Each structure stands twice: as C-alpha cells, then as structure tokens.
C-alpha cells in the first residue's frame, strides 16, 4: 500500500535528493498503515502533519501544488 504524508508550515525535509514541505505530499510504500507510520517517523521524526490513505488524499491534492513525491 501507499501512505500519503503532508507537512506543516515549518516542516521542511531533504529526502532522496528532494525537498519535502507544505506544498507537496510524500508517498511512502508500506505493507500496512502502521508500517507506513513507522517509516514516516524514521524519515521525518515528529515533523509531519498528517498521514492519509490514497482514498483520503484524493480530494485534497489541490492544496499541494508540487504534487506527490515518492520517498522510498
């Protein structure tokens, strides 16, 4: 499955030579939702806003002009 991660105004990360911030959604490949959350904490610590499933993020993408960025 994939978990979609959003970031707050002050959350900026550099992962896989990409800058992740409030204007994009990080895409994390994972086996389960809990596994995906574990990966998020490995990459971002506690500096991310929300995690979504694909169905939950679908109608919110207008808020993220840089689109989806895979991180693993």
Produce a short descriptive summary.
The chain is an alpha+beta fold and 72 residues long.
Number of helices: 2
User: Roughly how much helix do the residues carry, as a percent range?
Assistant: 10-25%
- The number of distinct β-strands equals 6
How many structural domains are formed by the residues?
1
Using brief descriptors, characterize the structure shown:
about 70 residues; alpha+beta; two-stranded antiparallel sheet; 6 strands
Helices and strands in order, then pairings?
Blueprint: E1 2-6, E2 13-15, E3 18-20, E4 25-29, H1 33-44, E5 50-52, H2 54-57, E6 68-70
Parallel strand pairs: 4-6
Antiparallel strand pairs: 1-4, 1-5, 2-3
Would you kindly provide a written description of the structure presented here, covering whatever features stand out?
- The chain has helices spanning 33-44, 54-57; strands at residues 2-6, 13-15, 18-20, 25-29, 50-52, 68-70.
- With 72 residues, it is an alpha+beta fold.
- The chain has one domain (2-70).
